[in-house]
Design a protein that fits this description.
This protein is of the alpha+beta class and 226 residues long. The protein has helices at residues 11-23, 34-37, 52-64, 67-73, 182-202, 207-223, and strands at residues 3-5, 27-28, 40-41, 43-44, 75-78, 82-86, 92-96, 101-103, 109-111, 114-119, 126-128, 131-135, 138-142, 149-153, 157-160, 163-166, 168-177. The structure holds nickel (II) ion.
Length: 226
């Protein structure tokens, strides 16, 4: 399931992050598994960079206040977000599948169920640099507005096509979901989306809605792993 979320950052947050990203130091060739590293050609902010903490806080706050993201991912753990930059020289990330396990700062591991990209450049600022994802329904090409997020299954083949002019700034992250199975996660997301719409039309106290919300919660209880 590929889901996009428009404008999860406020204009102020976006401006702050873009300013910090333009001032940050960037490095090549970090944070990919041995196979992915062969097709990866972009820049990242090194882990010791002082700007990471602030920017990670902004991203995590944006995720936490966006119920649609929580509903689509049902996150158990999220790796601290990282940032990348594609330029004409460091232009692309060829076809790959994200590593299954990623280390967390506390020494434990996270199983990557959902990958996410937060677009931080305005689409007019660069050519190319599209995220192409092969999902159950074929290949999808994604290029979102600055401040918008896309989530997709970590097990899907994907790439960032070559930037041919300008530059593309982005934030990427990996999440372990309470619900490991993509299709179960899709069912829960569709059900919760309908429930949220019905609640806004019918009010929280509607008798059948209370019952159906209980069923939704019981499905999460039945299927969740933590
Ligand atoms: Ni990837």
């Amino acid at each position: 399931m590929i889901v996009s979320f428009e404008n999860i950052l406020t204009p102020e947050e976006l401006a702050t992050m873009r300013r910090q990203l333009l001032e940050a130091e960037w490095a090549r060739g970090i944070s990919a598994g041995p196979q992915a590293r062969q097709v990866k050609k972009n820049l990242q902010i090194p882990e010791q960079s002082p700007v990471l903490r602030d920017m990670r806080t902004i991203v995590m706050r944006a995720l936490n206040r966006t119920p649609e993201v929580m509903s689509a991912v049902l996150p158990l753990k999220i790796i601290p977000p990282n940032f990348n930059r594609y330029t004409v020289e460091d232009s692309h990330y060829g076809k790959h599948i994200d590593s299954t396990l990623r280390p967390l700062p506390d020494g434990s591991y996270l199983r990557t169920d959902v990958s996410a990209t937060l677009f931080l450049s305005v689409p007019d600022e660069y050519e190319g640099g599209e995220l192409k994802i092969t999902d159950t329904f074929g290949e999808q090409t994604v290029k979102l507005s600055a401040g918008s997020l896309i989530t997709y299954p970590s097990g899907s083949l994907h790439e960032v096509t070559a930037v041919t002019s300008g530059e593309r700034l982005g934030c990427y992250m990996f999440m372990q979901s309470l619900i490991r199975d993509t299709e179960k996660r899709r069912l829960l997301y569709e059900m919760d989306t309908s429930l949220r719409r019905l609640r806004s039309e019918q009010g929280e106290a509607h008798h059948e809605l209370v019952a159906l919300t209980g069923t939704y919660n019981n499905l999460v209880r039945m299927w969740s792993e933590c």
